[in-house]
Amino acid sequence: MDLFQDLTGTFSVLDIALTLTLSFVLSALIGWVYKKTHRNISYSQSYVQTLVIIGMVVAVIMLVVGSNIARAFALVGALSVIRFRNAIKETRDVGFIFLVMAIGMAVGTRFYILAAAATVVILLVTYLMQRFDWFKLDIQRQVVKVQVPPDSHYQQDVADVLVSRTHEFELVSVETARGGALTELFYSVRLKPGVTTAELIDALGEVNTGQKVTVLTGYDQTDM
Hints:
- By secondary structure, the protein is α+β, with helices and mostly antiparallel strands.
- It has two domains: about 1-130, no CATH class; about 140-220, ACT domain (Alpha-Beta Plaits), CATH 3.30.70.260.
- About 55% of the residues lie in helices and about 15% in strands.
- A hairpin with a 4-residue loop joins strand 2 (about 165-175) and strand 3 (about 180-190).
């Protein structure tokens, strides 16, 4: 045991085992709740596994750093060379990354009860928000993409259709397509009761010379 103590420095083998085990259990619990509360199509198994790895790695880093300022600056310099190139698809994913980092820091600095209590409370709040749809916006909106010839009166014709079939609409962006032969209009709209997306597509198809019309429907923010 004295040999292991010499090899590990300021922390014991029990500290190492407890840190790795607790950080794994809590990070895996966070990953499990993330999986159960995930709704959209962007779920990634690799992301959840990365959450577990981050939690354990941060715990080890904090165990190594301890209260040694020189080690802390050395690790900051070493980690500054890392570049993450995968874009985060949902804002809640960032929250889970910060959560596993915070739990890893708490475990690595041996605040075991704080780490366990914070994990349970935060995950409970996360589950309740998903289960009871906290802060849900009940108004359903659609994103409408219409291709029209570049003549200005076509945009007015599209606007007339939207006036008759939506409560409100907003022109989000205008882009060129097919080398300038067409113009793509992006609208955010809220349909009137009784108006279906199929009816809206048919009406828009009558005024845009048969060009492509796309309607994206959903409660969540749509990436155009």
